[in-house]
Amino acid sequence: MTYRLEMNDMTKKYGDFLANDGVSIKLKKGEVLAIVGENGAGKTTLMRMLYGLEQPTSGEIFLNGKSVHFTGPEDGIEHGIGMVHQHFMLFPDFTVAENIVIGREPKSYGFFNRKAASEAVQKLVEQYRISVNPARKAGDCSVGEQQRIEILKVLYQGADIIILDEPTAVLTPAEVDELLNTVRFLASQGKSIILITHKLREVMKVADQITVLRNGRVTGQVKKAETTADELAQLMVGRELQELSERDQLEGAPLLEVKEITIGINSSKPVLDNVSLMVNRGEILGIAGVSGNGQSELIQAISGLKKVDAGSILLDSKDVTGTTVAFRRNAGISHIPEDRYLWGAAKEGSIVDNGLMGYYKQKKFNRNSVLLKNAFRSKVSGWISRFEIKAASMDDQAGNLSGGNLQKLIVARELGFETDFLIAAEPTRGVDIGAMEYIHEALLAKRNNGDGILLVSSELSEIMALSDRIAVMYEGKIAGLLDRKDATEEKLSVLMAGGKENEASKNTAAIV
Amino acid sequence: MDLFDYSLFISAIRMVSPILLAALGGALCARVGIFNVGLEGLILAGAFSAIVGNHYSGSVFVAVLSGAAGAVLVSLLFGIVTIKFKANAIVAGIAVNFLVLGLTTFLLRALFDVKGAYYDKNMEGLPKWDIPLIEHIPVIGKLISGHSPLVYIAFLAAILLYVYLYRTVAGFRLLAVGKNLSASKSMGLKVTAIQYGAVLMSGVLCGLAGAQLSLGQVTMFTEGMTAGRGFIALVAMMLGQSHPIGILGSSMLFGLMDALSVRLQGFSVPTQFTAMLPYLITIIAMFFLKDKGSDSQLSGQQSTR
Questions:
Q1: Residues of chain A found within 8 Å of residue B189, distances taken between Cβ atoms
Q2: Among the four A109, A263, A406, A503, which has the fewest Cβ within 10 Å?
């Protein structure tokens, strides 16, 4: 049989840089192809060439056996190729239905037939079992819902080949599962799916075929049935993954004590409800939970970004409740924020300036309020080489860094404060495996050094790999506290879904 | 003489039309994400071209057409600078205003050999249309009937623009471009063509506004005769939140203020003071609408995360 899609020997050069070097892929009807690789491996370039956003330097694309040549995204759409972008392309003020039909609106005499649009969307919703409310405004929809709108959009355009670019980066675990089910269902309906990702667990769940890219080259093309996540990881990184270092047994004194803090005391459902926890020296306390269950507020309360209505926060037995962020940072709290663009960095600023944040007050780096930038540049260049931050220059805008590299910069900055206590919120969101290994290792080293870390993550695997104890948050409360040796995925999932610790785990929703 | 009387409202309706036409033009631009500060210059170009057309052809119809054409040419320049060369729209708009002010003054001298103003008693102004049936209705009849065709066109334009934006596919796409440019591109919309279309159409509307100014009341052109109406239109557009019906309301308010300020001069209130009225009202109105400007699409593109 002929393949629905063949890309033969695709090469793309940017100047001297080979973004894609002789990459070939094949895709059949009803098949899910995963393209995995680290940031900068060339996944996106390959897809941009397929979608017509980028012209290949050499190579050929065949659709159903016929050679095609695309000059723009219209051509891709025309030939039944639909792309779900990593950053959603939505109109928040328009309804879901309007968002889906735009460009191919049902009309009579030039007038937009919104009723027909709604019906068409409703039909797609039923046909592909993707639930959205066509009448709702897209801006009011949850992230998961917005992604479903994007998928319906390409289905409405009649796409047979659907490209999903890092689709799970922004989703909660439950939403991820739902998405993976949708992907399988679409494949069963005869659609061909290309999944671009670096999350191997998802790949192992839905893919039929897997192509691994590294530095623009194909390093492996395997069937899912014939491989393992470990093998894929090796192909991606190009070396064997290391086990995390030994954990020293430390009996540390209490470092951070959070005592019965509440935020939103007057509402019927406080975002933080009487939360108490303790982080000892030489310990990583993990906070697990589906995002939106009070983790953000907890972090902000501890770092001083949000006021608490009741309760107290003690650092090293000193009460810091009600003090400013700067005071707490001086007292020894550093903070890797969960949203790197909102809290962690100034996109417009240079890499040096972003690194300088929080250091400028230190004597080493200013003389009578004049910044000593040169002293600082050597520090930042040290981070760049240690964390392998891929940047054109230190004076480049931070916003030009890829998400993973910016995250590494922020991690380096916050670790550089060498405080006793660190809040690490989603420290590896959007970073590739190599960098993730490095960050995990750095966190563990900090722990072994006798410092305390509060780790908040929506990745259960990360929590389980690093934490000494794990607290699960559910609806603003601590739903349970488990010791490292007692924590299993099942137990945590039950707690995350609001169940009790001793409840049978088998029949609850699998949030993994 | 009373402060408020019948003829005040009649002159208000006449004053409304240039503001309304220009504000609708500005709204079109705003809806595709371009803040057109050059309305003042576009109106002035329209007013001048209309007089030129009138002078050379002797036909009012040709005069109105040439008024529109003159403003369209200037708006094309504005479009090329902002869309093709991606210049800052505010800077380009201000440049347009000064460019047209200088150019019309220069051409006034070059073509008609006069300074300050050009007037020819043989030139025919816009006709007054008496609308059958309606003109005989007491009170309303005189208010509605007996205006120049451009006054009616202005009100019609507001309604047509409303239908266009919120009922047609083309209008929907135009709105989409202003709301999220990159998403529109990704859906294969012809973003550039839509933006040019909006800018050129704003030229047409501003040209008509200019023609009403120079041909509507007295048939003459004076240097800088727009006297800030383009800016009032800009404010009317923002006050109306780039919504045609909202603009209709805000333009009527400003037309009334315009007429009122003329009237107040009859009460020996200094002209300098009365001329402040529309702006004063604007500041007060902005106060009440401070949080509602988001829909005008000028607060920047939506970020996608």
A1: 102-103
A2: A109
Distance CA A478, CA A471 (A): 7
Cβ-based contacts of A89 with chain B (< 8 Å) = 180, 182-183, 186-187, 304
Contacts of A110 in chain B (CB under 8 A): 168-170
Per the domain annotation, does B241 fall within a domain?
no
What mean pLDDT is reported for chain B?
A: 88
Q: In this structure, are residues A195 and A212 in contact, taking their beta carbons and an 8 Å threshold?
A: no
* Residue ranges of domains in chain A, CATH in brackets: 5-237 (3.40.50.300), 254-349+420-496 (3.40.50.300)
Asked whether the beta carbons of A65 and A5 are under 8 A apart, the reply is no
Residue B281 lies in a domain: no
Higher pLDDT, A289 or B44: B44
Nearest residue on chain B to A100, alpha-carbon basis: B187
pLDDT above 90: residue B91: yes
Name the DSSP class of A372: -
Residues B58 and B64: their CA atoms lie apart, in Å, by: 11
Who contacts A229 (Cβ-Cβ below 8 Å, separation ≥6)?
A: A200, A201, A203, A204
What residues pair up with B147 in beta bridges, in sequence order?
B129
Question: Domain total for chain B?
Answer: 1
Mean pLDDT of A244-253: 79
Residues of B in contact with A102 (CB under 8 A): 172-173, 176, 184, 187, 189
Kindly report the nearest CA distance between residue B303 and chain A, in angstroms.
Answer: 10
Smallest Cβ–Cβ distance between A105 and the set B169, B188, B302 belongs to B169
Residue B163 lies in a domain: yes
Specify the pLDDT at position A405. Answer: 85
The model's pLDDT over B232-257, given as tens digits with 9 standing for 90+, comes to 999 899 888 899 999 999 999 888 88
Pairing between β-strand A370-371 and β-strand B220-222 as defined by DSSP bridges: unpaired
- Residue A509: phi, psi to the nearest 5? -60, 135
Each residue of A84-113: pLDDT tens digit?
Answer: 987 888 999 999 999 999 989 999 999 999
Of the candidates A85, A339, A35, A409, the one whose C-alpha atom is nearest the C-alpha of residue A199 is: A35
Q: Which domain holds residue B197?
A: 16-225
Q: Which of residues 319-378 of A touch B (CB under 8 A)?
A: 341
Interface membership of A73 toward B (CB under 8 Å): yes
**In the numeric block, which tokens belong to residue A250?**
């430390």
